[in-house]
Amino acid sequence: MKKTVIYKNNDCFSIKADFYGNSNHNAPVIVYIHGGGLVWGTREEISEEMIKLYNDNGFAVFSIDYRLAPETKLPEILEDVQDALQWLKSEGPQTGPKVS
């Protein structure tokens, strides 16, 4: 099961994340932060095999996008990641797996 959410939104941009999981809302969550040296990449780069491996072993996956350099500086990129984690803690339980 895949569900796309917007975890950060303002007048200039929206940033999305994808939940991958099953109906177990008590599953522990793995947060996937894509590679690319902070200059390229997307949340969609996580492989189907990796998602299946995690899901089959009882984990849900939260794969996030974040703004990229050089247009965005490191403090703002880190803020995006922190905002994703905060969103997961506050909104995740209503949207996807339970977060502890």
Automatic annotation (TrEMBL):
Note the InterPro entries from the entry.
AB_hydrolase_fold (IPR029058), BD-FAE-like_dom (IPR049492), Carboxylest/Gibb_receptor (IPR050466)
The answer to whether the entry has keyword RNA-binding is: no
Molecular function, one GO term: hydrolase activity
Gene3D superfamilies from the UniProt entry: alpha/beta hydrolase
Q: Where is the BD-FAE-like domain?
A: 22-91
Task: Cite the entry's keywords alphabetically.
Answer: Hydrolase
Its protein name is: Alpha/beta hydrolase
**What is the native source organism of this protein?**
Priestia megaterium (Bacillus megaterium)
